[in-house]
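User: I want to check something. If I give you two sequences, will you return the structure for each one separately, not as a complex?

Assistant: Yes, each is folded on its own. Here is the first sequence with its structure:
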Amino acid sequence: KDYERSIVLFLSDHGEGLGDHGEEQHGIFLYREALQVPLLVKLPGNRQGGTRVATPAQLTDVAPTVRALVGDETVEATTLLDLTGSDPPERKLYAETYYPRIHLGWSDLASLIEDDLHYIEGPDPELYHLASDPGETDNLLRERRGDYARLRDAMSSYRSELESPAEADAETAERLASLGYLSARVTPGDEPLPSPRARLPRLHRLKRGVERTARGRWEEAVEILAPLVEESPRMADAWENLAMALEHLGRLDEAEAAYRRALELTGGGDQVTLRLAGLYLITGRLDEARKHAELVLPTSPARAHGLLARIALAAERTEEAERHARSALESQPGAPGPRITLARIAAGKDRPEEALHLLAEIEDEDKGAAPDFWFVRGDALARLGRTEEASRAFRRAIEAHPGDPRAYTRLAVLHALEGRPREAVGLLRRLVEENETPAAYAAAVETLRLLGDEEGARHLLENARSRFPESSRLAELSP
């Protein structure tokens, strides 16, 4: 009964390139393989069942269609129902992509479909006849100059200029400027941007670099991406992934510079801003971390509040951390990060049972991916004296996040308390062998001192200072 009277729509938001024009995924080009998607509609009572509509439709037709079907008489836009009659309206279908411009520093593209003609506007305009050339391999621009001129003129009524977050919001622009950022975005008065088709080899190199970053093959990622940003200095995605790789290699000053460059290019992009704030957090520059996280509060409140909670916790402002964590959960109730922060606070206030209860509410699929889950669980279990379970949790934390030294050091302390000093030292040796970064060495040195092994700490610190002579963190540990 419910199905009979229901409206059901089946559709996709976009297609995939799959290499047809050199793009494997989507977002760069506007060819048919990316634009044409399935669209099936079931009406109440199965009205017009089996009807096929030849008139071009677009996804912007979906919302007014649903509104009209539920009785909204104020709908003025074209609906899918209007296309099923004997005299469907004449229309042009518009599409655009600013992804090449925002993420790669290349030209944005726009397209207009009229009947069987598909016009793509960019540095190298293209015109295709879809009925005779569905694969869009034969550019008819020279042969059909009249159609090209008509569609080019018609395109002007659809195009609008893109604004970055800083351009769209004066307060964001002011706060970015206060942090030392000068916009590096390309404006209409700048030099013409290159055609995405002319830069396909660089797109493939970027893809290889991003894949290396995703797999944690940091040195290979740097080898690919560092020369790429030299050749394409406006490629924001390359700068961001290069920064991530440099960060994981412990080259934190270079990572900061790369993140800042990516942030300038995006004009205040949320993801880059949050990554840079996270870098400032782990390097102890908490005021910088807070200012950057606050930049994205209006647009990404859940992620911003979640990071601000961790920053406040690092500054030992527990009440502020709790407020931010609860605000993050209000914005995104299922987010695991804020719940883990609340569990950390509970454990720190010697309420380990409450911490375990909060962690138990996190979905299984989030436990390995969410930073701190296994570490905080291990901490709570250790406070309850459940050392065997705590050890297992710390080992899971090392497995999930091998670059985070905290689980190594806490597990080493547990081994020492259990009368297993050789295992404790072996774990710290593993920490610095698998993570040759100043942060890892600093954590191992501090733990050895905590365990009373001053001689071992001195030798390790000397070795670390010889490897990383510029590290301020290691310098702070020197006598």
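And separately, the second sequence with its own structure:
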Amino acid sequence: MNISMWIAGIAVAAVVGLVAALLRARAQGRLLAAQLEARETELRVLHAAARELLTSVDPARLVAAVERETRRLFSLDRFRMLAVEADPGSQHQLRSFVPAPGEIALAPGEETLLRGIALEKCPVLLHEVGLEDGAGAIRSLMAVPLCLDDRVLGVLAVGSALPKAYTAAQLELLTTLGQQAASALEHARQHQAATVDSLTGLFLRDYFFRRLQEEFHRSARYGAPFALLMLDLDAFKEINDRHGHLVGDRYLRALGPVLRASLRLADLACRYGGDEFCILLPETDGAGGRIIAERIRSAVAELVVDADGTPVRTTASIGLAVHPLHDGGDLKALLRAADQALYRAKRQGRDRVVPWAA
């Protein structure tokens, strides 16, 4: 081999090496770009999740938002977001934040595992776990405690039917999402304590009247009517006198969901005081208000609460007033009209709906 061929061989080898190096660099660049894009997506999801979670005070919407964002971040076959309650024996009991029909029950091993995570307050990543239930097998699991300061509020867990489906980096991502969820849960709890009656689950009077004032101004601006119902339980005092206040409280606790189930999503009900309730029906005229009020009256009449083997029931009288038809542009006048209509319902025999009439 002459020297020119030798030099040419070296040059070819150098070019081949350079091309290989360039290809490797390009591949690494594409990998790095993909990793950066994935990280950017994760950050966008976390930012959007934080914004939505901290503006939501409804537990059902909060849990739904966490599940939606979790599914955007991970491939999963099982989602769990469970509340933790400590019993007198200092054990942690798990329950759904928002019980849903058709919900998959916890497998015995899964319940023990998630309770342990709550007790230890430590994130867990399992590459091979055998959790079997009616919905199939889970092979991989990530779970993090929902902690706020030293308190554990719940557990957030995702599972996959595939082994080794998750990484340590993904566990850190789930931990961040769990921290956001814990802050949102506490915000929702504080809002609920300030706005919701603990016995009936209906809104408190002060919060209700703020919303009523807002609806009054909105109606004045857009010209849409709204209806106001004043509801009083008939002979509720007899329940307390005959069966005791604990049974009366039991009845009121059962009444709250009955009232909510009779209303539309935009309607608001509050415990006005004792056994009297006030209900706001946005964008509702007299005819529509009468239909809803009758639905409520029927539902109350059908409610039966057990008092140690004795069925307890009562009825409701309801007064109806409509803005602007019955108030002349004065919110206090609207409240008086609804209250006077309620008084007439009582005088006319109770268990009835009476619209206000001048």
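Because they were folded independently, the notes below concern the second chain alone. The mean pLDDT is 84. The longest helix spans residues 3-53.
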